[in-house]
């Protein structure tokens, strides 16, 4: 197999490849761009006009998605997967991947949409670099832009696999993309209703891509991901890469639960207390009137929403960051 197919191995070893460009037996050009970044370009006659950004390892300990991208890339390098799309593979936080940690100094996925400018350190530099890599990749005009940023969660979840769909004022969420997510095995989609500072929000808002954060199960170390079943997603990604998907307009949304964000719980101070057991699962229901959290002064988070649930509860985040999201079933839906 070509050396560039071993992007994961190179990245974990902190090594640069001797040759930066290689051609597969199938005529696909692979180009190493920088640490953890590799562009795949199909032969021109086969190019179907899709630019697909696949990222994982934005959190270094979320290994199932990293292993998934590694399998796809190795299959391309061996000529077994025959791309018709242009692809950018990104391993987000190599330093954290090497130590098996979520991050080195700060959460990389809170530094996009320019937020890295207000910070310094390895993650701020990397967020800036990832923004530039994505911007350059998506710069050719009149092509279709799609980004999946793959993650696993800190805790177990009542709904194992779900997507978060970013928000931009005046832009409707796409029915076809929801159908594609359903076909890829996602059981729920959380529709954001305000701008955000995560990677998928950057590519959605600033680069015009259809972009999603995908949550695939619980985070585990490399080699211990037997419990995370990514078969449907892997198959669908392969079909997207090879341009062999069945038409999306006919695909059904059946079985896809849609939620919207009711409120983000922001931790303001060290006095923040979250009134949930440490092992609470994502999508756990919250009864009306429940005191979810409290913070300095008189700040109280009391559940008012019908059908409320919690996701990503984490009282250990830095002050000023999201310590959880209260979500509710999505009501009026304007899909494009
Ligand atoms: O399990 C958790 O608490 C976090 C899992 C995770 O990393 N989720 C992403 C979601 C990004 C988004 O809001 O689109 C994150 O928190 O960065
Ligand atoms: Zn993550």
TrEMBL record:
Domain AstE/AspA barrel-sandwich hybrid, chain residue ranges per copy: 256-329
A biological process term (GO) from this entry: L-arginine catabolic process to succinate
Cofactor: record remark: Binds 1 zinc ion per subunit.
Annotated GO MF terms: hydrolase activity, acting on ester bonds; succinylglutamate desuccinylase activity; zinc ion binding
Reaction(s) this enzyme catalyzes, per UniProt: N-succinyl-L-glutamate + H2O = L-glutamate + succinate
Residues of the Succinylglutamate desuccinylase/Aspartoacylase catalytic domain: 49-240
InterPro entries per record: AspA/AstE_fam, AstE_AspA_cat, Aste_AspA_hybrid_dom, SuccinylGlu_desuccinylase
Residues reported in the UniProt entry to bind Zn(2+): 59, 62, 151
A matching Pfam family: AstE_AspA_hybrid
EC number: 3.5.1.96
EC category: hydrolase
Active-site residues annotated for this sequence: 215
Pathway in which the depicted protein is active: Amino-acid degradation; L-arginine degradation via AST pathway; L-glutamate and succinate from L-arginine: step 5/5
Cofactor(s) in the UniProt record: Zn(2+)
Keywords noted in UniProt: Arginine metabolism, Hydrolase, Metal-binding, Zinc
NCBIfam families reported in the protein's UniProt record: arg_catab_astE (TIGR03242), PRK05324.1 (NF003706)
Function: Transforms N(2)-succinylglutamate into succinate and glutamate.
Family under the similarity heading: Belongs to the AspA/AstE family. Succinylglutamate desuccinylase subfamily.
Stated name of the protein: Succinylglutamate desuccinylase
Species whose genome carries this gene: Pseudomonas deceptionensis
């Amino acid at each position: 197999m070509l050396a560039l197919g071993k992007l994961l191995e190179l990245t974990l070893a902190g090594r640069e490849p001797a040759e930066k460009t290689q051609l597969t037996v199938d005529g696909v050009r692979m180009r190493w761009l920088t640490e953890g970044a590799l562009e795949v370009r199909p032969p021109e006659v086969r190019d179907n006009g899709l630019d697909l950004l696949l990222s994982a390892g934005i959190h270094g300990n979320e290994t199932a998605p990293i292993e998934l991208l590694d399998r796809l890339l190795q299959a391309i390098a061996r000529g077994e997967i025959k791309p018709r799309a242009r692809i950018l593979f990104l391993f987000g936080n190599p330093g954290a991947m090497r130590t098996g940690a979520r991050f080195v100094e700060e959460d990389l996925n809170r530094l996009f949409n320019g937020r890295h400018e207000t910070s310094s350190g390895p993650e701020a530099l990397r967020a800036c670099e990832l923004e530039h890599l994505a911007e350059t990749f998506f710069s050719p005009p009149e092509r279709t832009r799609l980004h999946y940023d793959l993650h696993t969660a800190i805790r177990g979840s009542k709904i194992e696999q779900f997507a978060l769909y970013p928000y931009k004022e005046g832009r409707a969420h796409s029915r076809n993309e929801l159908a594609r997510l359903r076909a890829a095995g996602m059981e729920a989609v959380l529709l954001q209703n305000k701008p955000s500072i995560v990677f998928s929000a950057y590519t959605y808002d600033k680069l015009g891509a259809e972009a999603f954060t995908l949550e695939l199960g619980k985070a585990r170390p490399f080699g211990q991901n037997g419990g995370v079943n990514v078969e449907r997603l892997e198959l669908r990604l392969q079909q997207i890469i090879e341009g062999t998907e069945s038409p999306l307009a006919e695909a059904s949304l059946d079985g896809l639960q849609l939620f919207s964000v009711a409120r983000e719980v922001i931790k303001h101070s060290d006095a923040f207390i979250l009134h949930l057991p440490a092992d609470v699962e994502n999508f756990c229901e919250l009864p009306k009137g429940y005191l979810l959290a409290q913070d300095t002064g008189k700040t109280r988070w009391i559940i008012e929403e019908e059908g409320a649930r919690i996701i990503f509860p984490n009282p250990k985040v830095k002050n000023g960051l999201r310590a959880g999201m209260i979500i509710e079933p999505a009501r009026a839906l304007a899909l494009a």
